[in-house]
């Protein structure tokens, strides 16, 4: 159970760190890609990510999450939950975020990998 909680928390931190990469330069690049892509159809990977995010939000482990996947030049974005704990504003994949410290995200990911390999 503890491993599952750590894994879900790490996933949330990883998604949070990935969202921080949504800088104006990256956003302009993504907008150019989005203009050329066909309408998105959820595949298994996207469905799995969506399910994990919805579960985190439903269990109130995080107030809201945004995720973005870029694969083969195609962009998939998903938002769930609240943008603020002080309002009912919903998360929107078009939101912008400032880059902050993402060191903890990488440390948590490596620690979970080492724990899984029984090296911790």
Automatic annotation (TrEMBL):
Key words of the record: Signal
Q: Is-annotated flag, keyword Signal?
A: yes
Q: Name one Pfam family in it.
A: Beta-lactamase
Q: What is this protein called?
A: Beta-lactamase family protein
Q: From which domain of life does this come?
A: Bacteria
Per its UniProt record, what InterPro entries does this chain match?
AmpC-like, Beta-lactam-related, Beta-lactam/transpept-like
User: Signal sequence: where?
Assistant: 1-28
Presence of the UniProt keyword Cell membrane in the record: no
Gene3D superfamilies, per the entry:
DD-peptidase/beta-lactamase superfamily (3.40.710.10)
Residues covered by the Beta-lactamase-related domain: 50-120
